[in-house]
Amino acid sequence: MSLAFDNASKTPEPAAPRQRRKSKKNGWFILAGLLALILAAGGGYWWYSSQSTATAPLSTVTVTRETLQQTVLASGTLQASSLISVGAQVSGIIKSVNVALGDDVSAGDVIAEIDSLDQANALKATQAALDSITAQKAQAEANLTKYQK
User: Coil, strand or helix: which one is 127?
Assistant: First the structure.
């Protein structure tokens, strides 16, 4: 069995010129598309770079010299670097305080005055007892001289 092809005997039609026209048209479309893409990319880059370099208007002020002040608001516990116990030689009710909290004091400064009424009464009682003993001594000496004679 042999197969015969009828199509083989026919001569093909020339299609080459038609393909050349399509490939030229396709080439121009591709070239135009690439050119448009490059222009769009360049325009986008230019717009982006011009936006990022734009700076806000600067405001200026005149420089002046001032003392720097710094305030801190805090709560906590402080410890003194040195403590000195202060006491009085006598006890009693405080009549007046001559310094405030945090004031600097020196040796010999009067910090407080103690009411001396209790001490004055004790002094008068002691003076009366001394006077009584002195009178008793005088009486005893008088009796001694009387008995010696």
Answer: helix
